[in-house]
Specification:
71 residues; mainly beta; four-stranded antiparallel beta sheet; 4 strands; globular
């Protein structure tokens, strides 16, 4: 079984776009403007460019750990 990947840094407290608090899901992703940012799911739907290498990764909080669930 593959080892789960987890966020190793300090998790974001708020979305870089709308500034709402990050609760249980965030995306570390690229925007169409070229900049990267921490996004809530709503802002990701509007400004995200996809998941995967060079695009973004999705993380979900589970048992106090941010696990990578996409990308």
């Amino acid at each position: 079984m593959a080892e789960k990947k987890v966020w190793s840094g300090t998790p974001p407290k708020e979305c870089d776009i709308c500034h709402r608090p990050i609760k249980d899901v965030f995306i570390d992703g690229k925007t169409p403007f070229g900049a990267w940012g921490f996004m809530c799911p709503g802002c990701y739907l509007q400004y995200g460019t996809g998941l995967g290498n060079g695009k973004g990764q999705k993380y979900r909080l589970k048992n106090g750990v941010w696990e990578k669930v996409g990308g």
